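Q:
My hope is that you can spare some time for a protein that puzzles me. I hope you can help me see how the letters and the tokens relate. Thank you; the sequence and its tokens follow:
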Amino acid sequence: MAIQQISVFLENNAGRLGEVTRVLASAGVNMRAISIADTADFGILRLIVNDNDKALKALSDAGFTSRETSVAAVEIEDLPGSLAQVLELFQKAKVNIEYLYASLEGRAGKAVVFFKLADHEKGLAILRENGLSMVDLF
């Protein structure tokens, strides 16, 4: 099971992140999880939103370059060591994690971790085999 994330490519200039959030707000799109990584010249904003189609159209209309990517969304206990246990599963199976980010939004006592995996299908199989709860809507 996978969830679709939106990646937005941004120039590393003051105000660009604010522009994206205003565009999405004007379109009535709710951000559920957010992560940003930057280099000297550009940033990549990664979002989980409530309506990808609406978000992608609004971003495109505003001149932003964006795309959808599949990520594994895994619900874990909000306790010390929970993430380490999942990471150990991927390590043992030699599944490379390209990046991850998390949100505490959701059920009480739970966190949702979003994984971009080098081998998405193998990673999903490992999660299923180990009885981890995956999220398809967030």
Remarks:
- The chain has a mean pLDDT of 91.
- The beta strands are 3-11, 31-38, 42-49, 65-77, 97-103, 110-117, 133-134.
- The first helix runs from residue 16 to 26.
